[in-house]
Amino acid sequence: MAKAFFRLQKFLRRTQFLLFFLTAAYLMAGSLLLLQRTRLVMQQGSRGTPSNQALPVPEQMSRVGILEPRTLQGPGPRLLVRMEALQEPALEQRHSPHWLMSRNSELRQLRRRWFHRFTSDQEPLQTAGFTAMKHTAEHKGTYMGCFSHDSRERTLKGAVFYDLRKMTVAHCQEACAERAYSYAGLAYGAECYCGNALPAAAARPEECNMECRGQRGSLCGGVNRLSVYSGEQLRTAARTRRNVIYRGCFRAPENLTDTFPASLIQPNLTVEMCSEFCSKKEFPLAVIRGQECYCGYPTGRFSLREGTAGPRCSGARNASSAAGGQYCLVYQTPVQDTRCTDRKFLTTKSKVFVALSSFPGAGNTWARHLIEHATGYYTGSYYFDGALYNKGFKGEKDHWRSRRTICVKTHESGKTEIEMFDSAILLIRNPYKSLMAEFNRKYAGHLGYATDRTWKSKEWPDFVNSYASWWASHVLEWLKYGKRLLVVHYEDLKQSLIPKLKEMVEFLNVTVTEDRLLCVENNRDGNFKRSGAKQKNFEPFTQEMKDLINRYILTVDEALRGRNFSGLPREYVPR
């Protein structure tokens, strides 16, 4: 017995020593790996692509699956840069597409570091369409009670927005008042719903038992329960701050009463009177013809696609002098078009794994907004962006391989990452605009602008040197390894939204109605659009930067034509 006990004791001592040795080895290996990655990041931050670097000549393109230039014939317009201008004598091997792709594989660690650091560095965002507000500890208005909340048949069916970190009653009330709604309802502690009529089904007061995420002691509904507050005082005060947007002068439909659900005849009718009337009725359009006011939505009968100008609408902005009986004036009220705001996860796992791939700054978030509202399904993400999740992109928190979303956002471009997807929508934007947009996001968030000081620092040229090659290699690698692609140019999507969005929806194998697409067009900007282009009093791109970027533009253009896609839009090269 003693002998057996001695053997056991000896074994345990050896095991302890072995575990100690393995733990020490594990910690040392982790430290070495961390030092190696830190060194890589430091090298990439200080080393950029030489500004006079040449791009691969077309004869070398066949090495990465790009055809000879004499075989590249596509329907798109030719670029304004000539091939002869891009060829340099004695090109080195490092200027080949292989170098372009291998260099970007080195940058992948740096890019991921920046992406995963984003959620902790991100500055507070404001929702587009809602004026930035100072949250107060005390809410204004009257608490109307607790009501049942059915997400499929909502009574408060006006504007909807989320703030899963900082929602307060005052924030919701003021946001609804800005949108011309009388009631604000809160659910799940973080969701805000607006409307002009109280929900029909009351619930027990104790069922609204969830605190607001950004305000302790305040009721923000519960599970399928709404805490409803009135905001009439705020609504009256917010009238002066509301935006009523003139949409144009259009030919009136043949039967106005059949086209528009609500109407008002008022002597001395003004734009403000008509807009206020339609806002109370929760319609996004106010249509004026003489002393007649009509409210409704964009529809197939009245799509707002063909405006009229000239003498017929010379007095169009004055309601009392509207252009006779054949033409009408159209204004956008503060009310949101809600026909396409309902979204959900797929009820069954998708059989086709679809990527929504783009270079950062190419409009991926905007494209997700359009796809979600057109299809009614959430989009996923290869990353987790807390700022996007807090503002309503619920697919951010869903695992990107769950197949419960209609498509998955990604900026990755490696062979392994690409081949995981069955098909992809490849979104391409002018690299000049993409680089500026991503630089703004990196240093000022989704809706902010980098300061002039940042633009003039060494960060900007280093950024261009590193990211310009990534813009090119991203497209090249997706063209090479992508199994089934739909190439969409950001500029085409912006200019011809409905036709391009139809292509994207059909590619996703989803059927949508014309009215839903018109609703998307009416809500086209979404929640993450910068408020106009902030003009700089200096040119951010030097001539060396332009030469470098133009070379990448030509490479991508030739590669697209080699795959029988249309070439890049003419505007990509600055004139």
UniProtKB/TrEMBL annotation:
SMART domains: WSC
GO molecular function, a single term: sulfotransferase activity
Residue ranges annotated for the WSC domain, each copy included: 140-232, 243-340
Keywords tagged on the record: Repeat
Pfam families tied to this protein: Sulfotransfer_1, WSC
InterPro entries the record matches: P-loop_NTPase, Sialate-O-sulfotransferase, Sulfotransferase_dom, WSC_carb-bd
Family of this protein: Belongs to the WSCD family.
Record's protein name: WSCD1 protein
Species of the source: Donacobius atricapilla
